[in-house]
Amino acid sequence: MMKNFNTVVIGAGPAGMMASIEASKKGTVCIIDSNPTPGRKLLLTGGGRCNVTVSETSRMFLKGIPAHSSFLHSSLHQFSPSDTQTFFQNRGVALKTEHNNAVFPASDKAETILQCIVGEMEKQNIVYQQATVQKVQIKENATFYIVSEQHGNTQIWETNHVILATGGKSYTHTGSTGGGYQIAQQLGHTIVPTEPGLIHLQAKPNYWNDCQGISLSSITLKWCGSKEKHTGDFIFTDNGFSGPVILNMSLEPFRKKELCIDFFPPISDEEWTHSVEDWRALHPTMKVSSWLQQWFPKKMVAVFLSLAEIQDTLPGAEFSKKDQHKLYTLLRGGIVNHVQKGSIEKAMVTLGGVHLKEVNPGTMESKIQPGLFFAGEVLDIAGKTGGYNIQIALSTGFVAGQLKTETKRGEA
Q: For 215-261, what is each residue's pLDDT tens digit?
């Protein structure tokens, strides 16, 4: 049996749900997703609290998009971070802004955001169908035929518009399997190779095994050999590093890199020298391990001294100029950490996806296939941690849902 809708949205994450709400103003809408209910991944965001947007102007917001930020100019103009807050507040959701301008529901529950969006979908009579889309075909008069399967039953959907909002490959247990890339390719699109983004980094070798769980504030990091610095909160994990500053650095495409960590950004060379001189003069019998603990946890101190090849029992009176220089160099980024990303299944976002040159940034319509639109993580764009990616999803979903068709057949 064939079902007919004006628009079919594939994917029920924040991008797909917002797209379905807007598209419903133009005609009937069905949203198809492999999960029994919409928004499964949304419930996991922000540690279950859902950092729904960032309280910033669109211009400031774009600084949180490491690559291809210009692509978002139009969609943010049409649906900005301020518009996101208004959308939820007008529907009875109280919001609050925390550090780094992160915006959360006042309830601290992602369910609050999801219930609001689902409630709006119900008001607009949007049909939700649990199924897995197998393929999308184009027939006469640019009509789309979508073939889906659920529990061995095949269903065919006929529609004038398709909005592809399937997400990436991260969090595969929520249904983000990368299937949208295959659909896009079926319809003539190029897929930029994917890799993990917003993910912890594994260190090999890992000098910091015993430091697991230690967190540090305002640490400065850079890729060894680079002048660009990144500052933020940092944490040692069981096999490497995490924390917001690490997650944001993982948005760069790479397989392996060398990471340098400045553990002493507030301390100048002169201050270090004066501190060493005071230690030698006032506490000549104090061990170097005890002296360093005024700044660092004991387990970190053990790593520093081991790498510097300095005995932890060395007293201030015997701490040489050579020791002073060697230790300070290590503390200020002289330790080379060989890092690589974890598996994409553990990443918060997927880098890569539908090539942006093949998508109209003002409408989110395909430049290759009229009536085909894209929204959210399926596109080759990602933002920093802290609400940027949900806002990208909502903005691109809003624009895609307008169903503004400008592409002509054969245009590329």
A: 999 899 999 999 999 999 999 999 999 999 999 999 999 999 999 99
Report the alpha-carbon distance of residue 401 to residue 75 in Å, rounded. Answer: 11
| C-alpha 365, offset from chain centre | 23
Of 166, 167, 170, 168, which Cα lies nearest the Cα of 342? Answer: 170
**What's the rounded Cα separation, in Å, for the pair 32 and 128?**
6
Sign for the CA dihedral angle at 246, 251, 252, 253 comes to positive
pLDDT over 60 (residue 409): no
Distance, in Å, from the CA atom of 353 to the CA atom of 207, rounded to the nearest integer, reads 35
- The torsion angle over the Cα atoms of residues 255, 260, 261 and 266, rounded to 10 degrees, is -140
pLDDT digits (tens, 9 = 90+) for 348-368: 999 999 999 999 999 999 999
Domains and CATH numbers, the chain: 2-196+346-400 (3.50.50.60), 200-341 (no CATH)
* pLDDT recorded at residue 313: 97
Contact assessment for residue 347 and residue 329, using Cβ atoms and an 8 Å cutoff: no
Residue 68 · residue 353 · CB < 8 Å: no
Residue with tokens 């659920």: 150
Sign of the torsion formed by the C-alpha atoms of 53, 57, 61 and 62 = positive
Say if residues 160 and 109 touch (Cβ distance below 8 Å).
no
State pLDDT tens for residues 89-148.
Answer: 999 999 999 988 999 999 999 999 999 999 999 999 999 999 999 999 998 777 999 999
How remote is the C-alpha of 145 from its chain's centroid?
32
- Residue 364's Cβ-side half-sphere holds a number of Cα atoms within 13 Å equal to 37
